[in-house]
Amino acid sequence: MRVTFNANGREVEADDVWEGESLLFMLRERLGLPGSKNACEQGECGSCTVYLDGAPVCSCLVAAGQVQDREVRTVEGLADENGLDPVQQAFVDAGAVQCGFCTPGLLVQTHDLLEREPQPSDSDIREALSGNLCRCTGYEKIMDAVRLASARKCHQSEVSQ
Ligand code: FES
Ligand code: FES
Question: Under CATH, domain 86-159 is a member of which superfamily?
C-alpha cells in the first residue's frame, strides 16, 4: 500500500508498505530518516520515540498505515534553519550523549515535557523520561541536560518578553 503523510513539515509518501510494517521501519528504511533508533522493537526502551499529531509515541508500535494523512515529527524535525533545538544543544553541552542510541527518544520526550511544563521538578523529569532507557549514562547527565534546557528556554522567553 501507499502511505502519504506529513513528516517534519513536508508531505511524503512511501510505496509498497506492507501490512505489518512499523512507522519506525518506514521512517528509517524508506524515507531516509534514521534518527529514530530501533533498540527493542517492543515498546520497552523509548529510543524510537517520535511525535504523532503532537503526542510522543513509540514508532516501533505504530503501524505505518496508521499515519495516513497525519503529522509525524522526528528528532530530525526538532532542529530548524537556526540550528539545533535548545534541548538538543543542552544534551550536547551537558555531556548527556554517550553511545547515542537512547538520545533521539530522550530528545523528543524532553522536548514534549518542556512544551507542557517549562520548569519541571526533578520528579517531573523522572516521570516524563521513565519510558526511555539508557544503558550508558546512569541518567545524571541526562537530568543535567533537561535542567539546562529548561533554564535556557526560560531565559530565552524572559528576554523575548
Ligand atoms: S525500539 Fe521502540 S520502544 Fe524500543
Ligand atoms: S547513551 Fe548509550 S544508551 Fe544512552
Answer: [2Fe-2S]-binding domain (1.10.150.120)
